[in-house]
Amino acid sequence: MADTTRLSVTNQQVINAIYKAAKSVGRNGWDLLSRAGLTSLVRDRQGLYRGPDIEALPGLTAQEKALVREALGLPAEVPQPETPPAALLTNQQMINAIYKAAAALGKDGWDLLRRADLVHLVRDRQATYEGPAVDALPGLSAAEKAQVKIALGLPAEVSPPEEPTPSGEFTHQQLINAIYKVAKSAGLNGWSLLRAAGLTYLVRDRQAVYRGPAIDDLPGLSSVQKAQVKAALGLAEETVPPSIPQITNQQVINAIYQTARATGQQGWTLLSRAKLTHLVQDRQGAYQGPAIDDLPGLSDDEKTRLKEILGLPAGGPPKPATGETEVAAGIEGKIKWQGPSPNQEPTRYGHPIEMIVMHYTASGSTAGTVSWFMNPASKVSVHYVVGRDGEIVQLVKDECRAHHAGQGPLPGQSEEIGERRRKRNRIIQPNSRSLGIEMVNWGPLQKRGDKYYTWMGSECPGEVVLKNGTYWQAYTDSQLASVIQLVSHLCRKHNIPAQYPPLGPGTFDPDDKTLATFKGILGHSALDNQKRDPGPHFDWDRLLAGVRENLGQS
């Protein structure tokens, strides 16, 4: 049972409790708040606390957690739930079976639990298991499901060990190297990509011959990444065209340094501005980054010099048919890459991109918003941020899973409601199926006299609108114009229909199954009845009309 659900507390009360605990042990309050991953609470001090249970807070010692609980007036020990009848299967029994199956197959238990989409079970270990039947678990092979059923005492036929891939044998270490090489070329973390593929167990026996799934059957990798892994293993020709054919990473580095010298700058500084420092990790590899004209942080003059040095035509090399450097007409050059955010996953676990979710930031600047999403302690991220001046910043690549629209149990709610939210999240899969766009906007305001104030107590600049009895900071014309361009581009790129849910884009739809199959554009408030963004002051009619016009559907 979650301890904070037994007592309704505000974010400020949790902050106060953490500061009190810090003082008791002679530590800094902000440091303790940071270690607990709760610095976000200061953004809405009077809001109801919706974070992890005290016992689940990361970075705190048992003593510190006990002091926080005491300061909140919670019991010293969390009462254990009653043991369910023996005939029922608990979440803990399912977890144990998954780990036992993983051990039998020489794999990692947590990876198997994640691939089965069952990590939520750890939140309520003694509850009755209500998930899919073993044979219906996603992400598991027939052999893995059979081992789970055996661990549970269910009848099962164990599939024979998988044969080596028909294209030739290679060792675990060779496959690890190939995955790390693909990760580096894309600016991703190698271990994260290895984990997404369900292959972290390979490090236990690096020289053994690989006998896992064929590369094309690996979960968590895109088709492009699978093709690149096979190419790195020498199994097949890589079919993904590089952004600049027949040019190595070292040649691009050299060209950037030459450009820097010609313009009186430091080479590393220019390489950093172009977001290409990862190239030094594989200097002889084929350049797979953005086209020169799409490099962020460089002036037109610097891009022209680069192309001259590389012997490219003035118009630049042809852009890839797919990938992050492909931009729609009218938005070219506007999307600035400032990622990757550490709060993401390099896979969508097999789900296609079908929705675009609109948010407001509850903040006042693009830079502050970007800084928050780039902070590991925030644990949140989004694909795109649109500033009040129309600036567009990208922090997570489209093919990766950002943390912007998930749902979980909230403090002060019953166990039944908490489980209902978890179940809704599992059915809809909002983060795995969507792209998130945050618009810089303070959201609801408070009026005092003839002035308007944000939730932080600062005076809100600019236009204010009154909607549904609440004052809101207005979205700017520049911002809306960029949002229309961006959404049009993403709808075209990912074949997302320019349409809203049946109940409307901002209205909460209690029917999980409707949104589980919905494809289109919607607000965060349509997914979660505890959210208000992008607010009733957002011009949904203008967005849809603009997107359909750009797509030739008006």
Q: Topology, please?
A:
Blueprint: H1 11-24, H2 29-35, H3 62-71, H4 91-104, H5 109-115, H6 142-151, H7 172-185, H8 190-196, H9 223-233, H10 249-262, H11 267-273, H12 300-309, E1 335-337, E2 344-345, E3 355-360, H13 366-373, E4 384-386, E5 392-394, E6 401-402, H14 415-428, H15 430-433, E7 434-439, E8 444-448, E9 451-453, E10 464-467, E11 470-473, H16 477-494, H17 512-517, E12 520-523, H18 524-527, H19 540-550
Helix pairs in contact: 1-2, 1-3, 4-5, 4-6, 7-8, 7-9, 10-11, 10-12, 16-19
Task: Give a structural overview.
The chain has 554 residues and is of the alpha/beta class. It has five domains: 4-71, no CATH class; 108-160, no CATH class; 172-233, no CATH class; 249-319, no CATH class; 337-550, Peptidoglycan recognition protein-like (Lysozyme-like). It has 19 helices and twelve strands. The strands form three sheets. A six-stranded mixed beta sheet has the order 1-5-4-7-3-12, sandwiched between helices. A four-stranded antiparallel beta sheet has the order 9-8-11-10, with no helix packed on it. A two-stranded antiparallel sheet has the order 2-6. A hairpin with a 2-residue loop joins strand 8 (444-448) and strand 9. Helix 7 (172-185) crosses helix 9 (223-233) and helix 10 packs across helix 12. It is globular and about 70 Å long. The model is unreliable at 1-6, 77-87, 158-167, 237-245 and 316-329 (pLDDT under 50).
